[in-house]
Amino acid sequence: MLSLRDAERRGRPDIVHLCLLNALGTPLNKEQMLSVYVHTLNDEVISVAPEVRLPRNYNRFTSLIEQLFQTHHVPTEGKTLLEIQSETLQDLLRHLHPSRVLALSVLGEPSTTAKAIEPLVSEENPTIIVGGFPRGHLSDQTTRLSDAIVSIDPEGLDAWIVVSRLLYEFEKQSRIPEKRWDQRRKE
Amino acid sequence: MLSLRDAERRGRPDIVHLCLLNALGTPLNKEQMLSVYVHTLNDEVISVAPEVRLPRNYNRFTSLIEQLFQTHHVPTEGKTLLEIQSETLQDLLRHLHPSRVLALSVLGEPSTTAKAIEPLVSEENPTIIVGGFPRGHLSDQTTRLSDAIVSIDPEGLDAWIVVSRLLYEFEKQSRIPEKRWDQRRKE
User: Fold this and answer.
1) B1 within 8 A of B29, measured Cβ to Cβ
2) How far apart are CA A92 and CA B42, in angstroms?
3) How many CB pairs under 8 A join A and B?
4) DSSP secondary-structure letter at A145?
5) Is A60's Cβ below 8 Å from some Cβ in B?
6) ipTM attached to this prediction
């Protein structure tokens, strides 16, 4: 049945769309504290500007991504919001200089979202890797780049749910909800 | 511009799709501790069985919902997974007998997700209402049905992000992550 190389880990644009919508709508992103990258199996990296307003509608999203593959950045004039370039995950991490890398995998050490996030909150530049594919696991190459590999549920969870929980827990442990209300009261 | 009655609060199927995917993939739902209903502005209620595997793909989702509007339940044979019937939100709540109703609104009392969930965890039958529309607010009629109306972010958040955070926080305060690992260790 599976004739493509690494067929189980081939990204599905619908999963990427769901992960991005769950990441970009967070207060963490609105506070400009989040950088989002999508790495593809063909070793391309899409850089996502925090202020991009991604289409909520899936068909408009896939049109946008098709345009991105043609022009390499969108929009073609003005500030770039999405950009694609050839890059391995290893090279991407080298450029990001993470102070600590957490990877999520159902094969990882049993943990909870809260415990997985704890060591990241005091880090200068923490990075999280979540596999945006329906089945299959992170490659050995990817797990070797990680300081910790944890599982936050015995059955495994959909990638977009993992993204939501990790970012919310990071915000919570960084007291961002309280800070945002304090800021509003001062205005 | 807005010529439809309550145009701002007209549901968008893409928002409903995102909310449902964020709710149905949770451990809370897998533990059969969640019941999900979609109430429409035309006073129809869609009941969602916890075991339904909703299409991740938006186009397949809208086809399924079109079928549902024609046949009133899907699949047409075997156990019903989605069902639609005429019902007001008031009547739905009467049937559900909630012990406490929490409504989320950017006009509500400033709070955090964790604090908003706290009073629900010890309740026998807590119910949460989230508006699945892009702008606008819950109607007065809806807020009158609620015991508390809270806002979890000063800017407001996308409906699917609100759903994710509330359900995760409810699970966390109910110690479901730990219980699921304990259960796995016993197997």
Assistant:
1) no
2) 49
3) 100
4) T
5) no
6) 0.92
Give the largest CA-CA distance in chain B. Answer: 60
| CB contact A126 to B (< 8 Å) | no
Distance of CA B102 to the CA centre of its chain: 12
Cβ atoms < 10 Å from Cβ of A52: 17
Contacts (Cβ under 8 Å, ≥6 apart) of A21: A54, A56, A160, B18, B158, B160
**What is the distance in angstroms between the Cα of B83 and the nearest Cα belonging to chain A?**
24
Q: Does B58 touch chain A (CB under 8 A)?
A: yes
Residue in this structure with the two tokens 């990241």, named with its chain if needed: A120
pLDDT at residue B169, rounded to an integer: 98
pLDDT average, residue stretch A150-170: 97
Nearest chain A residue to B22 by CA distance is A161
In angstroms, the CA A32 to CA A50 distance is 7
Give yes or no for residue A41 having a pLDDT over 90.
no
Judged by CB atoms closer than 8 Å, whether chains meet at A22 and B58 is answered as no
Residue-level pLDDT at B142: 87
